[in-house]
Predict the 3D structure of the following.
Amino acid sequence: MKIQQVLLSPRVGGAESLASALSAAWSSDGIENEICYIDQDNKRPRSRWARIRRVRQATRTFAPDVIVAHTALPNIYARIGSSKHLPKVIVLHSSAYDYDHKSLRLAERILQSRTQHVIGVGHKQIEEYNRRFGARVPTSIIPNGVRSDLPRRRSVENDQLRVITLARIAAVKNPKLWQDVAERLNSMSEVDLAWWGPVADENMERMVRDHQLSSRPGRFAGSTDDPGTVLSEASILFHPSDRESHGLSIIEAACVGLPVVCSDVVASVLPEELNVETFSVGNAEEAVEALQRVIGDYETYSGAAMRQAQKVREMFGIEKCAQTYITACEAAIASMA
């Protein structure tokens, strides 16, 4: 089987991390695959026709047996730009309601006949899809898998507490809450609060620049190609986002053995087995209180997180995830026979 994954651009995000991990897992099992980016970078998007031509050229060159397209726009262009006889699996990642947009609803209704399987990384995506478009296309829920090479924390270290956020700097991740928490926490505790991740757009670039120029507490540390090391050197993962589809960075942090603090809404889509401290969405005061609870009894929280890490790895290993994707791809191919 030859699998071609289609993504928007080589940025850092949950969909891109999953695609990279799936590619590595499939390659280790001898499955030929490649990733096609319809935009070569995140700064200069191609025109619509250029994106279609990019998909057409890539599929003709690689000649896959099945396409796996990730997120709303690649899901559209993968089906428009490739042969109608090529099986296609689309993957829904967004924590937002993509199909609230009239243009995306119209595109999906038109392209559904070219769709052999729909995957959601959580229940919410599939529930929305079926509510909008019915159950004509087979669906699966496949939580994002985590890489097997993530390091493990083996000891509780409390010399300097490092509270990190690992995510794209985007409005949906609520950087305003993070800034408020940084200021409140700075006046109470000696902690290093850092946000690791790429900047999503010009508005966020301006916010980061203003934050740095004003010397406010907390630091935007930039993007990283080695999230495992960032997590292993941290003390606590603080996830300020209002909502998530699956929360890959939270799962990765749990696999490393980090205590996690996130909103109650984000916690509601996480597995029940994950023990996290929560706060009400958008409530900086409660977020600081949750962080203070973990900081105040860090040895207990950290020990529990390290003991839980192996179980989380077994639940969300990329090998299991990759095999489940193969099953969906085989079903998509069989449906075209």
About this structure: The chain has a mean pLDDT of 90.
